[in-house]
Amino acid sequence: FAGLADVSISEDIPVxxxxxxxxxxxxxxxxxxxxxxxxxxxxxRDLKAVGKKFVHVMYPKKSxxxxxxxDLWGPxxxxxxxxxxxxxxxxxxxxxxxxxxxxxxxxxxFGAVVITLNSKLLGGTIxxxxxxxxxGYCVLPLTVAMLVCRLVLxxxxxxxxxxIRLIVVVAMFGWSTLASTAFLADSQPPNRKxxxxxxxxxxxxxxxxxxxxxxxQ
Amino acid sequence: QGGGSAVIDMENMDDTSGSSFxxxxxxxxxxxxxxxxxxxxxxxxxEEEDGEFLGMKGLRGQLGRQVADQMWQVGKRQASRAFxxxxxxxxxxxxxxxxxxxxxxxxxxxxxPVKMINFPQKIAGELYGPLMLVFTLVAILLHGMKxxxxxxxxxxxxxxxxxxxxxxxxxxxSFIYFLAYLCNAQITMVQMLSLLGYGLFGHCITLFVTYNIxxxxxxxxxxxxxxxxxxxxxxxVLVSRTVGHTQRLILCGTLxxxxxxxxxxxxxxYHKVVEGILDTLEGPNVPPFQRxxxxxxxxxxxxxxxxxxxxxxxx
Lengths: 217, 315
Known about the structure:
The complex is a heterodimer. Chain A contains 8 helices and no strands. In chain A, helix 3 packs across helix 4 and helix 6 packs parallel to helix 8. Chain A has a domain at 68-88 and 98-213. By secondary structure, chain A is an all-alpha fold. Chain A is elongated and about 90 Å long. By secondary structure, chain B is mostly helical. Chain B has helices spanning 3-13, 21-43, 45-54, 60-86, 100-109, 128-147, 157-182, 189-210, 216-240, 245-269, 273-282, 298-314. In chain B, helix 2 crosses helix 3 (45-54). Chain B is elongated. The A-B interface holds A 1-10, 12-13, 17, 91-92, 95-97, 99-100, 103, 107, 114, 117-118, 120-123, 125, 127, 191-192, 194-195, 198-199, 202, 205-206, 209, 213 and B 1-3, 5-6, 9, 13, 16, 21, 31, 35, 38, 41-42, 45, 49, 89, 92-93, 96-100, 103, 128, 131-132, 135-136, 139, 142-143, 146, 149-153, 156-159, 293. Chain A: It is found in: Golgi apparatus membrane; Membrane. Chain A: Residues 59-210 form the Yip1 domain. Chain A: Pfam families: Yip1. Chain A: One of its GO terms (cellular component) is Golgi membrane.
């Protein structure tokens, strides 16, 4: 141990370590390998995880399942279905007045990125992808609202249908905002919650506005 | 012999930003790697250190692995350092350090012109409020465009709204900052961005009201009243920071003109009610209004037309 005499440890770094050396396996992946299982099991496991998160969004309790194992499958599915349903709604058949697929896609993802950056800059403790995951999953009520709006529009497009659509969209918008606030606001210092909630409110407001003003050809 | 690890320790000491979450994790990771490396080094002490140093002596099989491992560690460290330097949003963190009460106070203050222009007024260099105001303006603009059935040919509604608002905020801020540099005014870029951003609060209020209540004269009252107040505040703050009459005139004249004209543009370019009123009042003498299918260069023409007709109407 002659070499140890010259080793210099700066005083800034706290010297810490464990006395007991862990005897167990170093990498937990070696214990449980998912490579050999049938594809159906893999898909079902992922689908179940996504489904569980959907349930968490519809009944927002303070659970950390959404945050702990984040995934972006659910937001992708929701975003694509919302963009598909919003496509093709325009006043004039020649010019495109309604949002295109790419527009909706870009709005949702860039909006989510901006809100995440904002919450991080305000001192949030949540990570980038966790926040994206929560914001994406909370688009679920608005997707349901879009579905309902399309069904109502099939029946007719008068004042009554507009009022029904308005009520549904406003209710779902409130639900989305409350659900995402329940997950995201906890990660902020308590006196700055309003600063984080406002951009989320704007984001879902813009999406709700796109849904409400959708008129099919 | 311990010189190798001491050098590595010194390299680590350069980069302790420590303020963000990721940096702490990275530092811990580095320390863990150092400990592992040191433990490994001590295990085969004498031979391996000789081998590393000269590259010729020592056990050949282990030498290659050791060198490759060392290179990979150094490369990874450099890459993560570069990443944490450039992708570090901590640079922007001080500009977002506000409380809701402060934001509300600044919003209200942005409508109150200061009276004391003899010594420099304080401007808070904060970016949260202005950014949120720009996004709110985008949302209000979208609402106005939708209710007026604006059809944009080579672009999208959302793209136009975002481009207009952000382009105004960033572009006019930079231009006024450049003018301020020429006129020797004491203002930094962040302060200018903040000042102009808060000045958009008046625009938001005006457009929010007049996109919903379609009264022609109501818009003019709001334009002069609310728009005028926020412009006066910005002008007063700039005047307090500039010396010399000509410079003050240039700077504040430009800012006032751009700010008021922007509000005028936002109202007339995206609102169809004006067209309806003008048509019914002037009858068949109205030349065809180029609003329906609009490419961006035609917009200025349309604005000129409407302002000319509006002025003719009021006279």
